[in-house]
Amino acid sequence: MLKAFGFCRICAASPPVAPTAVADNVSALVDSALDAAESGADICVFPELCVTGYTCGDLFYHASLLDAAEAGLASFLAATRARVTLFVVGLPLRLDGLLINGAAACCQGRVIGVVPKSCLPNTQEFYERRWFASGIGLAAQQIRVCGAYLPLGTGLLFESASDPACRVGIEVCEDLWSPQPPSQALAVGGATIICNLSASNERVGKADYRRMLVAAQSARCLAAYAYAGAGVGESTTDLVFGGHTLLAENGRVLAEGERFVRKGTRVLADVDLAFLLHERRQNAVFADCSAHTAPLRRLTFGDGTVVERAEHPCVTELIRVVDPHPFVPSDRVSRDERCAEVFAIQSSGLATRLLHAGIKAVVVGVSGGLDSALALLAAYEAFDRAGLDRSGVHAVTMPGFGTTALTLDNARRLCEGLGVALEQIDITQACRQHLADLGHDGESHDITFENAQARERTQVLMDRANMLHALVVGTGDLSELALGWCTFNGDQMSMYGVNGGVPKTLVRDVIAWVAQRRVNEVARAALHEILATPVSPELLPADANGEIAQKTEDVIGPYELHDFFLYHFVRCGASEAKIRFLAGIAFAGRYAPDEIARWLALFLRRFYTQQFKRSSLPDGPKVGSVGLSPRGDWRMPSDVPVSSL
Predict the structure, then answer these.
(1) Separation between Cα atoms, residue 595 and residue 601, nearest integer Å
(2) Within its chain, how far is the Cα of 374 from the centroid?
(3) Whole-model pTM?
(4) Does 3.40.50.620 match the CATH number of domain 332-551+611-644?
(5) What is the mean pLDDT of the chain?
(6) Of 432, 457, 466, 490, which sees the most CB atoms within 10 A?
(7) Secondary structure (DSSP) of 551-619
(8) Catalytic residues
(9) Coil, strand, or helix at residue 29?
(10) For residue range 244-298, what is the model confidence (pLDDT) as tens digits?
């Protein structure tokens, strides 16, 4: 199932290794390799020179150590012959009188190819050029290992016979630290997974830098990155090694092992190759780089006749955190930073538009709900950023057939706290007259009854803006645009939409952040009340108790689900089946599988059929990695058959 959705399981392992103790080292490598294979790993990378140990010094010159290294590799191959996992193992190898720091890619008991280290550090604590030759410019295309001639080079690409999306490139330690890491050419040449065998010693602060470097390179390469560092068993004459293991994907660290563990460590994670390929397909710069990169030599692994591993229970379970709220960081510090940045983008965008147009006033329709509150706050902030008098912010509330005392009071209290004048224009009589003119009975609560109110409100705002020489600030958010949960030429329209890039799940947090930091006690209390109010367009009459009867999430489903669907459909290019699978993990215990399937089907149906509303959106700032502007991020026909999904 995992492979069908594009997942590949990778492992970074740092077993206990000691310098020159080849037999013991290989035994530890075999144990770790078999354990990784039993855990379902498709790829497993070990540290640099792990067969002999990295800290052997001038003993690397001795033929006895080099002979032992090859014999140790042969033992490793024999012990892993029945495994279809690709193991990447480091050892010193002889080549025509030279010595290379090599990475042997092994599968099903044979070496597929050898990648030499390109960049040899020779400063401060490192002296690798004393022993090894760089892989850059090696004339040899083959190397003799364990009695066989094998492909050798820095431009080797290892491709899985069972999964063409699983393509592995290899670089060794310092290669990553260089100005031009080999992984960049490997990635644009097709590698979706980069393996790094490393022996990076520990210094204060170095782990943080290493983690940042691995994550950044995975982002630069639009790839998964598996990093395995040498452990504490190495010589401590001058250095200490921590056995740092990292797995990253497109800038995100998926797993990290504990350092300084005497018995060794390993980490496993499922990387989403389908997502990475989706990212590459829509990245024109990546395609341009590919066109100017020398082709790689492709080698296939996993095509032997050995029976594959038996299905293991953990192989069907995803080893990866699936965030139920992908737009909202889970930790408080990151969430606050996200909210601050979103609010700054919104308000700065509006400020620039006002200054460019020479406009000193805005009109905001304030309903007492979430979206209009955020739009008003962004406008309020924009006037400060633009150096304009806040008196130019005009709020209008327009009670209609479904407006409750709660939301009307929310609007009044918020404007009072902000010091913004609030104008109240009741639209009920205008809507009754309009419906009567149409021959509508005014009692049938149909779509005409609802949309007449939304369009009347937009008309009022536009005309009031004309009178004030002002700009109408839109309130609709990204989630509503995705679902088409807006009235065409009603709340779908404005002169500048500040919320169009903000998903509903993030709207709440931005408002909460503003309430805590930007407003007085009166406005803060009003915002907290708004946060506690059910989401509703209030287009249908209130219930017998005067409370909101029309609750949006009762009609179209929970916004947290829709935002999850939106992220994985638009940002990740996931199929309906894959989204359903991931949502089942993310929302386990909260929503039943049939409920997820029902709301997902509704989301997809509305997303496809409501494109025409997004095709005529007003201007507004992009906020995050998902946007639906027809001028920027999302272009699709308005008449795609839903049945074709």
Answers:
(1) 10
(2) 25
(3) 0.94
(4) yes
(5) 95
(6) 457
(7) -HHHHH--HHHHHHHHIIIIIS---HHHHHHHHHHHTTTTS-HHHHHHHHHHHHHHHHHTHHHHTTPPP
(8) 48, 117, 173
(9) helix
(10) 999 999 999 999 999 999 999 999 999 999 999 999 999 988 888 877 778 899 9
